[in-house]
Design a protein that fits this description.
By secondary structure, the protein is mainly β. The chain contains no helices and 11 strands.
Length: about 130
């Protein structure tokens, strides 16, 4: 069974930076597309970024493009999300997810992901 554990959340002022990590255990991490999603109370969980397993192709939500960077280290079974120029509207619980389908494109929809972490809170103060 694949387990995903996020870390790195916290409180940061607007304009600041924060880095999230997600460590995977179990399964074959190097063949998983990895994604980050976020959710605020009362709203749907939304796509933030993803990185494919084969060519490290990345995708970003328009709202974070140019500010967030997703990367992965297969030797450490870890995916990262570097968040810069944070805005109050980035406040959410951030979830790491793994897609084990070995699709060639990095998925951007919730339903494509098989495994989820427990989430980490990111709060951006204005």
């Amino acid at each position: 069974q694949v387990q995903l554990v996020e870390s790195g959340g916290g409180l940061v002022p607007a304009g600041g930076s924060l880095g999230l990590s997600c460590a995977a255990s179990g399964g074959t991490y190097s063949t998983y597309t990895m994604g980050w999603f976020r959710q605020i109370p009362g709203k749907e969980r939304e796509f933030v970024a993803s990185i494919s397993w084969m060519h490290d192709t990345t995708y970003y939500a328009d709202s974070v493009k140019g500010r967030f960077t997703i990367s992965r280290d297969n030797a450490k079974n870890t995916v990262y999300l570097q968040m810069n120029s944070l805005k109050p509207e980035d406040t959410a619980v951030y979830y790491c997810a793994a897609d084990a389908s070995r699709g060639l494109l990095a998925a951007r929809t919730r339903g494509a992901y098989d495994y989820w972490g427990q989430g980490t809170q990111v709060t951006v103060s204005s």
